[in-house]
Amino acid sequence: MRGRTILLRCVQALAVLLGVSVASFAVAHATGDPVTLLLSPSASDAARTAMRAHLGLDRPVTIQYALFLQHALGGDFGQSFIYRQGVAGLVLARLPATLILAGSAFAIALCVGMPLGVLAARGGMAAAMLELFSLAGLAVPAFWLGLMLVLLVAVELRALPVDGYGGLSHLVLPALTLSLQGTARLSRLVASGMRGALRADYIRTARARGLSEARVVWVHALRNVLVPVVTMAALELGDLISSAVVVEMVFAWPGIGRLAVAALQQRDFPLLQGTVFIAGLGFVIVNLLADLLCARIDPRIGLAR
Amino acid sequence: MTAALLDIERLQVRFGQTVAVADASLRVAKGEAVGIVGESGSGKSATVLAAMRLHPPGASVTASRLSLDGHDVRTLPDRRMASLRGGFAAMIFQDPLTALNPLMAVGRQIAEVVAAHRGLRGGQARAAAILLMERVGIGDAAVRAHHFPHQFSGGMRQRVMIAAALAGDPALLIADEPTTALDVTVQADIVRLIRRLRAERDMGLVWVTHDLALMAGIVDRVVVMYAGRVMETAPVDALYAAPRHPYTVALLASLRRDGVQAEASGAPVPPGGCAFAPRCPARMARCDTAPPMLRAGGTEAACWTLAA
Hints:
The complex is a heterodimer.
Chain A: H1 2-30, H2 35-38, H3 45-55, H4 61-73, H5 87-121, H6 125-139, H7 142-156, H8 168-197, H9 201-208, H10 213-223, H11 226-250, H12 256-265, H13 269-297
Chain B: E1 6-15, E2 18-28, E3 33-37, H1 44-51, E4 59-62, E5 65-68, E6 71-72, H2 78-84, E7 89-92, H3 96-99, H4 106-118, H5 122-135, H6 141-144, H7 154-166, E8 172-176, H8 184-201, E9 204-209, E10 221-226, E11 229-235, H9 236-241, H10 246-256, E12 294-296, E13 299-301
Parallel strand pairs in B: 3-9, 3-10, 7-8, 8-9
Antiparallel strand pairs in B: 1-2, 1-4, 1-5, 5-6, 10-11, 11-13, 12-13
Helix pairs in contact in B: 4-5, 4-7, 5-7, 7-8
């Protein structure tokens, strides 16, 4: 049973990736003709046609897609129009920066959001404060928060660098900005889950057995809200990727988000397809892992054992 | 004189305007087994939960005495209360499926009680848990310890609950409808098991049930509750042979016939009157004021018929 279910999930993941490849290809081609941007406006029609043929854009769209897919399966996403380098290499070079940024934001959301949610579930002042914080966190757009943090912390207080990529000091502001929405969402999910879990019979049992309140709350109740938390955290990653585009622009962070924006502006089809496809691949893999993790947390889910 | 295991006097439990327990008194001596019988809503569960300070957060609890092992449950610091729970007095519940944590292997759930009350750690606590599982009749315990509650049958789950309850070596076991959710044959197994364990350990027992018939072979004394009040308390044999309160009589009659015969057809009582009066075949004028507990031989009953 277990092996078959995992296999099924993998097949599903492949189907999703195929969908992602179609979408990234279609979206790239919907942005317009890259040749108008690659050549000067005064270029002759002959030059344009030659350029189009050189880039392979003169072939039928279906053929272009089939070629793209064929090469992508071998890890080759073609040559970037603007950088005149392999797309795979370009993306891989920028990937660590984005992974560091998204990973830090994700870690902040988990380490802050979960305890906040647990505390808020106990009611009282903490609950009211969290409600306020999480609403504000959800309402504030990342680009605005990023700019405000830059103004206050970097420009006025000169406590941290305005932008760029380097040590920990460069990471703090973008990671905080990127984590805010995730933290807010996660804490609300944990809080509402914990409120339900703390009313459960097994919590009364745990108390009746004389377990410490800390153990009752952090082990018995929290474990029972982990499945939705893991599921949402994995989905949150998709949001993190799209927010990273904005945050990387605001903080001049050299990640794949900025690469994608550049590719979009320049109608760099291969680069755009490559970044979107690799982001989609990451998303699919993380969600696959989340499913497996959920099955380990809750043996009733049917994957494990 | 050693303190009673459980000593409750004039207990009242309210949820907002709703009175769950109006006036309940109850004492369990060392090694004694007491049954609390009543229909649902009679306040029997609320009484034992209040005694363990496990009542829901919104409930208000008042009493002239509420003590476990001589400690006042109302004022005991949380840490001391936690060591009494599971250590001095353990509890098992009606539905072992919801009462066990679904996401924790049963061996761990037992081992953590061992760790909390006996100070054993890691492998020692796990070994003790497996030993406890064997003691309550779970075969292949070393393997079963790794299984989760949903992988057990109802009866086996209740055995797991009992093993966890025994983990702190309690002097008092409080069982809140422990067999109600089980098949009849399994019910008999669990009753036999608890009787055996009690004999082995000289453990006091409070058995809460709506099933008066079940009490016969288990408890020494029965407390009958109705509408949040104790109606009658008597040695189990005396209760069966010569019930004194009309409600107890009706309950016993319902075992032989189908359903409780007394219908709520009579006139309502004014506030402060006997709660059973509207259904009572022996109602008289004095029932408009609540009777105190009156003694007749080994039996005490809250009924004016005993004063006659």
